[in-house]
Amino acid sequence: MPVPRVDVARRRDLLAPGDNRRLSRNVRSGEWVRVAPGSYVVREAWAALTPIERHRLRVDEVVLRLQTPAVVSHLAAAALWDIDVLGPWPTAVDVTIGRTTGGRSGGALRRHALGLDGVERIPFGRHEVTSAAQTALDLARALPFVRAVTAVDQALWSQRRGGPLCTKDELLQALERGGPRRGDVRARRAIDAGEALAANVRETQVRVVAIGLGFGIPRLQERRVLRSGRLVFGDLYSPDHDHWVEIDGRGKYLSPQFGAGRAPADIVLDEKDRENEIRREVRGFSRLGATDADHPGRMYDILTGDGLPSTKPRPRTR
Q1: Mean pLDDT throughout 110-126?
Q2: Looking at the record, which segments are called Disordered (predicted)?
Q3: Engineered SS bond to 237: which of 7, 95, 127, 222, CB 3.0-4.6 Å?
């Protein structure tokens, strides 16, 4: 993933007598954001970055200051490989160290004393970073199931520019390399659940939660040519019940890349026309908000209310 193009102010580079005082004043006022110890970015520039871009910038700034070579891993390596993961990004940078190396996490680093035997890594400046397959495997071992599958899906994503970062076979080979490790059972389950067609972490989350709620295994990126000749792709599709599922995020209506210069109202109207055409050609249609899968009971109600049957009862909610 390329380094975000953002001007970074570093204390060690400030030479003018008043620079340090000016920087401290800007940080206290909120005009500048602390990215890493001694590194700051204008708040507007920081806000314009995506969460994964922010973490990539943080990784670069922290690694730049390290005096001894390190192995960047886990979520820090994920940011470098552009492996998005559901949930918040940490404020510390992950590194993997030897089992007997010692040293505790703290400050800008989060150390994982897991050992480096069998850990696949490549050069990263004077440091190293775990390979894409190793990174996805490390996250699959460490994260809760749904978040783990999002990492696996992102590594396998077939529509990525330049192609997928790895294959499922490579993930399984990495799992066997170096002998048994804690989290192997969890990782194998996440790898088995991985799919190469999930375009983003919310699609992965909805798929995994839907399967857990008893809605069966859907097809991803269902391709249809409508009667009007329009080519459409569905996020999820249940072939057993001819049920089409769309996942709506705010980016669909606000993103410059998606909008291509169109007004949000025009995008909404076009999306409504598209939905009406699809509804005429399938038995059932559901539209989920980007965060509905955060609330399984709500998601269950939406899908069953739209006519998609489940083999399980509604989940209990607090």
Answers
A1: 94
A2: 299-318
A3: 222
